[in-house]
Amino acid sequence: MLQAIEFPTVLTDNQHIDIPSNLRSQLKANQSVRVIVLVTNDVEEPPKKKRQLGTLAGKISIPDDFDEPLEDLNEYMY
Known about the structure:
Mean pLDDT: 83
Number of helices: 2
Order of helices and strands: HH
Radius of gyration: 31 Å
Structural class: little secondary structure
Oligomer: single chain
Low-confidence stretches: none
Shape: rod-shaped
Largest sheet: none
């Protein structure tokens, strides 16, 4: 029967994996084990701030003639 145990740890200076003492008590001497190593990033990204709607209200205005053709482009359009 297989049993999965997950625990956070780091590699020691001499590249050994430190198994917490409470887990060591669950293992028997000469017991066969399989170790899978998942490497994670050391840098945790801070949680993204939720955007609040309306923070730019009144700070941006669109002129009434926004959709009108630009005079500078008349020679290319007609």
